[in-house]
Design brief:
about 750 residues, Aldehyde Oxidoreductase, domain 4, 3 domains, five-stranded mixed β-sheet, 16 helices, about 25% helix, about 25% strand, globular, binds dioxothiomolybdenum(VI) ion, AldOxase/xan_DH_Mopterin-bd_sf, Ald_Oxase/Xan_DH_a/b, Ald_Oxase/xanthine_DH-like
Length: about 750
């Protein structure tokens, strides 16, 4: 429609200046008058009951305002039984301070509110709480036999597809076979920004909650149900976020506790959790995966089985799609997929970037490497021989799939053809072992219903808004690009607003669906506004567009002009001024086009090539090069998209080599709940990372042709590194992270 061409260009973040100059305001930074401060007291035991809380001892401290616990929580809280949030799994969500029961270590048992943060923290440190301890079970290994198949619960959970062919027989008869178990430890989200909620008391039971969340609408819905508030009386705001990765998908107990205190005390309250406490509300589950693959003499897959088991809490059935991808990433006629969860005395796991697929691609992609070696094939060649042209899980063609181009372009960029197959056969100039590994994955391209509003003023400034979120992914920027592109305006003339329940309803930011969902709403809204402007332009005195149809015109360079003759133009500002309107508005709500999508499987794909060097004497692994090639439809912004994928790769390296939350089963407690002992990659761990996008033309997914890139970049990274370690050393590590002790 226009020629400004913002879409697809590497545009710098429009919110960048606000972030680097400190004017971007985060949840814990809103200044509110007469604020009290909260601090959470967490349970040291994993299971049992609270028998006594000596609240009076800390209430005696001058400046301590209140101690909230199950003993004095207002009876109306949790009254409405429909307090499930948008992404709640099956079961009954945890209710903080609801009763004396302890269900997991670090469970919040009390909230101290004081005049200063320091005093609240001090009071929390001396509050005596007595418990009656019960035996807990926190080991997935010992609960293997108690695994069960979850029912559908959480939105988006698909039970594994029915088996096809005869995988057991095919495995028995095939010339090449492998079977193995793969394990990875639990991981915790560690965004830079801590979880915090600043609740502004607006009087008469009205509040504004500045909350760290990926979904303001979700938090508003949750809070209004729990406390019986009207939506207008409970505004939720999140304009900036220092990382989410899934930790902000569900409303966290910090939001509930801060609002509880504000409503009870009729005063503004801020509550911030500690880094330690952020290990108490959800994690990527510790997962056991069993894979059994067979290959024919020609290198085609004869059989594939993938079974996974991971933990959940006693009160909710957390589910993620771990194994389903294995039925569609490669062509195979004999497939059986199984998925179970087992209850433990811990908090419910929580979606973490590419939930399920990040885990599942560890099992599948290391198993594919093992299978390739067993069949005597190069691991990339093995993947090419088993390329899936159709999604066999649903027996539909892909709306678009350029994974083959990713394989070729990624391999060329990496120099894969110089790889020698034998483990331990490559060394660098320093004499260190060199290994090259490959891995990859597939992720859903989904679109949710979303709404937006656009408003243009007589000075030519456009404001577009939607209640979506921005985790730091580039949402402000891509939405501004779409709006600028559609109305032919310079991006500087566009302001995009988000993260406020007063704005048009949109889904939470997750699932890599924001670009497709909110982007489509922004595009459609700006098109609706364009039509309104066009109608006014036709009515102007001596309008050169008087006889034009909407299809005949385009918006470019702040003008509205005939496509066939650019000299026949009117200036946008003049249209508005001539109309006498101070501003012109449009809004729309967009749903995915189910009719168009019905016959297709909608997915994004990637492949990752990794190089490691291994010091034989010390067992240290360095990831020296990574190429990540991604097919995810149209890329709206090469700069922010690349940045997203760089983050995915860094995290994938962490998953492969260092990240693991370790449970001490004696205490039923995660022991390394801090940055000193929960290791994530630092700059010194990161070397060359190359990101390639193989663009796909796809008008089936949505008119913008975008599939989203928040999660797909993470897939296969950990497996590629583990496979590279095998190639370097000949040691097959099936228990991630690959740490020194596993290589010596
Ligand atoms: Mo993502 S795990 O849907 O934030």
């Amino acid at each position: 429609m226009s020629t400004t061409n913002y879409i697809g260009k590497p545009t710098s973040r429009v919110d960048g200046p606000a972030k680097v100059t400190g004017t971007a305001t985060y949840a814990a930074e809103y200044s509110v008058a007469n604020m009290a401060y909260g601090y959470v007291v967490s349970s040291p035991i994993a299971k049992g009951k609270i028998t006594k809380i000596h609240a009076e001892e800390v209430l005696a401290l001058p400046g301590v305002v209140q101690v909230f616990s199950h003993e004095n929580v207002p009876s109306l809280a949790w009254f409405d039984r429909s307090y499930k949030d948008d992404v709640a799994p099956g079961g009954s969500p945890f209710r903080a301070l609801h009763d004396a029961d302890i269900k997991f270590s670090q469970q919040p048992v009390a909230l101290i509110v004081a005049e200063t943060f320091e005093l609240a923290r001090y009071a929390a440190s001396v509050l005596r709480v007595e418990y009656q301890q019960e035996d807990h079970e926190t080991s997935l290994e010992t609960q293997r036999a108690k695994g069960y198949e979850p029912g559908a619960g959480k939105t988006g959970f698909q039970p594994p597809p029915a088996p096809r062919g005869n995988p057991d027989k095919a495995w028995e008869e095939a010339p090449h076979r492998m079977e193995a178990e793969y394990v990875h430890g639990a991981q915790h989200h560690n965004p830079m920004e801590l979880f915090s909620t600043t609740v502004e008391w607006r009087g008469e039971g009205k509040i504004t909650a500045y909350d760290k969340t990926q979904g303001v609408m979700n938090v508003q819905q949750y809070l209004t149900k729990i406390f019986g508030l009207k939506k207008d009386d409970c505004r939720v705001v999140n304009e900036y976020m220092g990382g989410g990765f899934g930790s902000g998908l569900r409303p966290q107990y910090s939001a509930y506790l801060a609002v509880l205190a504000a409503l009870e005390l009729k005063r503004s309250v801020r509550l911030t959790l500690t880094r330690e406490q952020m290990f108490s509300f959800g994690h990527r589950p510790h997962t056991l995966q069993y894979l059994k693959l067979a290959a024919n003499a020609d290198g085609t897959l004869a059989a594939l089985q993938h079974h996974a088991l991971h933990e959940t809490s006693q009160f909710e059935d957390y589910t993620e799609n771990v194994v389903n991808w294995s039925g569609m990433l490669y062509q195979c006629e004999n497939v059986k997929l199984g998925y179970q969860i087992a209850k433990l005395d811990m908090y419910t796991p929580l979606d973490m970037r590419a939930p399920g697929a990040a885990s599942g691609s560890i099992g599948l992609e290391i198993a594919m490497d093992e299978m390739a070696y067993a069949a005597g094939l190069d691991p990339l060649e093995f993947r090419l021989r088993n390329y899936a042209e159709r999604d066999q899980n649903v027996d539909k063609p892909f709306s678009s799939k350029k994974l083959r181009e990713c394989y070729h372009q990624g391999a060329a960029k990496f120099g894969w053809d110089k790889r020698t197959q034998a483990p331990g056969s490559m060394r660098n100039a320093d004499g260190k072992l060199v290994g090259w590994g490959v891995g990859g994955g597939v992720w859903d391209a989904t679109q949710q219903k979303a709404a937006a509003k656009a408003s243009i003023t007589a000075d030519g400034k456009l404001t577009v808004s939607s209640a979506t979120g921005e985790n730091g992914t580039g949402t402000y920027t891509i939405m501004s690009q779409i709006a600028a592109e559609t109305l032919g305006l310079p991006i500087e003339a566009v302001t995009f607003k988000l993260g406020d329940t007063d704005l048009p309803e949109s889904p939470l930011q997750g699932g890599s669906w924001t670009a497709a969902s909110v982007g489509s709403a922004v595009q459609s809204t700006c098109e609706a506004l364009a039509e309104k402007i066009f109608k006014l332009a036709r009515k102007m005195d001596d309008s050169p567009l008087r006889d034009a149809k909407f299809e005949d015109v385009e918006f470019a360079s702040g003008q509205l002009r005939l496509r066939a003759d650019h000299s026949q133009a009117v200036v946008l500002r003049d249209v508005l001024q001539a109309s006498g309107e101070a501003k012109l508005e449009a809004d729309s709500s967009v749903m995915p086009n189910m009719v168009k999508q019905n016959g297709y499987s909608l997915h994004s794909h990637n492949v990752v090539f990794a190089e490691v060097t291994v010091d034989e004497d010390l067992g240290t692994v360095h990831v020296t090069r990574v190429v990540n090639a991604i097919a995810a439809g149209r890329i709206l912004n090469l700069k922010t998209a690349r940045s997203q994928v760089l983050g995915s790769v860094v995290w994938g390296l962490g998953m492969a080599l260092m990240e693991e939350t370790v449970m001490d089963h004696k205490f039923g407690r995660y022991m390394n709940h801090n940055f000193a002992e929960y290791h994530v990659p630092v700059n010194a761990d990161i070397h060359d990372i190359d990101v390639l996008f193989v663009e796909e033309e796809d008008d089936i997914v949505n008119p913008l042709g975008v599939k989203g890139i928040g999660e797909v970049g993470m897939l296969g990274v950990a497996a590629a590194v583990a496979n590279a370690v095998f190639h370097a050393t000949g040691k097959r590590v099936r228990d991630l992270p690959v740490m020194i002790d596993k290589l010596l």
